[in-house]
Specification:
This protein is an alpha/beta fold and 265 residues long. It has six helices and ten strands. Helix 1 packs parallel to helix 2. The chain is elongated and about 100 Å long.
């Protein structure tokens, strides 16, 4: 009798332990479900919507490359394509080749815009991959891929050097209507994209716009602040995007004075 009582007691303890485990697992599943419910609407669902709109804008024929991880996100590309549709820029310069190059070229073709893209990159495999995709989609006439290494540069009023694209004189034309800043990589140096201001802003047309990817990062926020200190008439419009998107333009539609001088470090 004593043994039977002991066995019943052990079974009861075991049953309570199992019930406790199931209860804890239930609450963990509930918390995980709530976490996913909160996370997906803020990240994935807007990207699905942006991707759908991109395909519709690009005649449903777009074959876009991977738009996750390091690539520009669909929401950023949608802002870019909508701007191209509305403003029809003829001279486009982008810092950093990749998905944005293909999306921008597809937009020029879809909207019948006689424009051209100068796509700068310091990573040769990226440039080769972009060239291959441009050939595959018959987009080569819209893009000039430019592969150049990085070289140290210094700028007036800044007490440090930056590694920036070592562009030969005359490669990038004046009269840029749209500047896309998504490179160089900021992994080693968070401020790696600052030189786009002193190097390229003086080349902008009167009504040019600047689109900055990863605009929510502290370094990009500081970069914009420093650019605005140099060019007080530079205005900023924040657009919703998972990594942040800033649209910069000059309020009086006047080209910024080319007062900054860049010299080799």
């Amino acid at each position: 009798m004593a043994i039977l009582t002991l066995i019943c007691a052990l079974n009861l303890v075991f049953l309570l332990a199992v019930l406790g485990l199931v209860w804890r697992m239930r609450w963990r599943i509930i918390r995980l479900r709530e976490t996913l419910r909160m996370e997906y609407p803020s990240s994935l669902w807007p990207q699905f919507e942006s991707m759908t709109r991109l395909y519709r804008l690009l005649d449903g024929k777009a074959d876009l490359p991977n738009l996750r991880h390091w690539a520009a996100s669909p929401d950023f590309l949608l802002h870019l394509v909508l701007h191209i549709q509305e403003h029809a820029p003829r001279r486009i310069v982008e810092c950093g080749s990749g998905s944005s190059t293909i999306a921008t070229a597809l937009a020029l073709r879809a909207f019948g815009i006689d424009g051209h893209i100068y796509s700068i990159d310091c990573y040769e495999p990226s440039v080769k991959a972009v060239r291959s995709q441009l050939r595959r989609h018959d987009l080569e006439r819209f893009v000039t891929p430019i592969f150049v290494p990085l070289a140290p540069r210094r700028y007036d009023g800044v007490d440090r050097s930056f590694d920036w694209y070592d562009l030969p004189p005359g490669v990038i034309p004046d009269g840029i209507d749209l500047l896309v800043v998504d490179g160089p990589s900021a992994v080693q140096d968070p401020d790696a994209r600052y030189p786009a201001g002193p190097e390229l802003l003086p080349k902008l047309s009167r009504a040019a716009h600047i689109f900055i990817d990863d605009a929510d990062r502290p370094a990009e926020t500081e970069m914009v602040r420093r650019w605005r200190a140099l060019y007080p008439n530079l205005s900023v419009r924040k657009l919703p995007a998972e990594k942040g998107c800033s649209d910069l333009f000059f309020l009086d539609e006047a080209r910024p004075a080319a007062e900054l001088v860049s010299v080799p470090a």
